[in-house]
Amino acid sequence: MSCGCKTSGDSSHSCGTKSANGCDSVNTCGNSYKLSVFDWLSNIHNPTNTQTDFVEVRFKNDRKLCFKNVHNLPLHIGSVVTVESSPGFDIGVVSLTGELVKIQMKKKFFSEDNTQKIYRLANQRDIEVWQDARAKEEPIKLQARKIAYGLNLNMKITDVEFQGDGTKVTFYYTSETRVDFRQLIKEFATTFRTKIDMKQIGFRQEAAKVGGIGSCGRELCCSTWLTDFRSVNTNAARYQQLSINPQKLAGQCGKLKCCLNYELDSYLDALSDFPPSSTTIDTINGKAFCIKIDVFKKKMWFAYVERSMAWYDLDVKDVKKLIAQNKAGEKTVPLEEVHVPDMPVKSVDLIQENNMDRFERRNKPVGKNQNRKKTSGPKPPQSGKPIPNANQENKSSENRGENNGKLSVENNAPQNAKNPNQKPFKNKKKFTPKRDNNA
């Protein structure tokens, strides 16, 4: 009822995102897996008879608020309710009920004293007004962008959200600088005849609202399942031994990718066994400094100060032994003696994955026998002689004395002699059309 897919109360159904094969109103659908919360306390019986009066309600985009069920309405996940707002009322979808709501309120710092209340279950009239207001959002967004462009404001209007009763419009915009939109609000109020609310969001929130495809080939994490944005800095890339390339490290929002934090803890645990990257080793041939670290192979590359072009990869265990000798006041052996060259491993491409022309039809080699017709019988003799059979060989051995010193006419016949049984080839005369002088 909330999104039109008629499965708002079905927990086994998921509408997915806007780009998936789901409903268009996935932001207010009761089955959107980005904003839905898994209620792991739903199958656990409450030992006390008291139940919580608070319910979590979801609105468009990622906006969630907690309301108090003062009338003890029979609410469940997916119910469309009419809630208190300022001014008027708003319409949303229940996303969570039960004792888990208190944990969510504590996590998001919702106060129980100033919590607004739920009026009623939304009736047909409320839902019709709500759907009409939602249908106006896209044309209003395009018209608002034209007005902002006409005023030469350095801002971008990302999304528009109508209140459930249609009395207020919230414009979400992004800007790198401070925007004086006093004249803009006057233009909006005159054009749209409603209360205007401007809300500035960040570029990460804009990417979450708009959506898109990341460099990994999948949908953006912020638009599918990621609901909180943690700070990402370049140290996360340095710990993972990544090159500081802004084009590769930046996402669709222009900021550092959120996925840089996913494996950061694993890298930090692995780097705890490594000596610091500023380690220097005092050898007999001179001092050596660390150039790079391979976390997976557990190796460190060193080079001499005088000869920085020659790199030597050492195991972490060997590096710790050399550092311990330096701390004892001894110079270590040269890096050439500690370095063990790796045996080159020749990889075999069994499925020809790296072959670029594996799907192309290769041309056959051009040779002398390319145009010859393939026959199933024996090959013709090259010298013009017929192939002797076994019976012919026996007869030739018996009559060898009779034909001794005589040459057969058949064997001495020229190769280009004509076959008497072959019909002569007649050249057909070309028909020349007669000229019509009367034309």
Descriptive overview:
The radius of gyration is 42 Å and the shape is extended. The strands form three sheets. Strands 2-1-4-3-5 form a five-stranded antiparallel β-sheet. A hairpin with a 4-residue loop joins strand 3 (80-84) and strand 4 (89-96). The two termini are 82 Å apart. It has twelve helices and twelve strands. It has helices at 100-107, 124-135, 137-150, 182-192, 203-210, 221-224, 234-239, 246-249, 264-271, 316-327, 335-338, 390-398; strands spanning 54-58, 64-68, 80-84, 89-96, 118-121, 156-162, 168-174, 195-200, 280-283, 286-294, 299-304, 312-315.
Lay out the secondary structure:
Layout: E1 54-58, E2 64-68, E3 80-84, E4 89-96, H1 100-107, E5 118-121, H2 124-135, H3 137-150, E6 156-162, E7 168-174, H4 182-192, E8 195-200, H5 203-210, H6 221-224, H7 234-239, H8 246-249, H9 264-271, E9 280-283, E10 286-294, E11 299-304, E12 312-315, H10 316-327, H11 335-338, H12 390-398
Parallel strand pairs: 7-8
Antiparallel strand pairs: 1-2, 1-4, 3-4, 3-5, 6-7, 9-10, 10-11, 11-12
Helix pairs in contact: 3-4
List keywords for this structure.
23% helix, extended, 12 helices, disordered N terminus, 439 residues, alpha+beta
In short:
The protein is an alpha+beta fold and 439 residues long. 23% of the residues lie in helices and 16% in strands.
Approximately how much beta-strand content do the residues carry?
A: 15-25%
Count every helix, treating DSSP H or I runs of 4 or more residues as helices: 12
Taken in chain order, the helices and strands follow as EEEEHEHHEEHEHHHHHEEEEHHH
Low-pLDDT residue spans: 1-22, 26-31, 400-417
- What's the count of strands? 12
Q: What is the terminal separation in angstroms?
A: 82 Å
Largest sheet, strands/sense/barrel:
5 strands, antiparallel
Structural class: alpha+beta
Name the strands of the widest sheet in spatial order: 2-1-4-3-5
Helix content estimate: 10-25%
Rg, rounded, reads: 42 Å
- What's the overall average pLDDT, rounded? 78
3D shape: extended
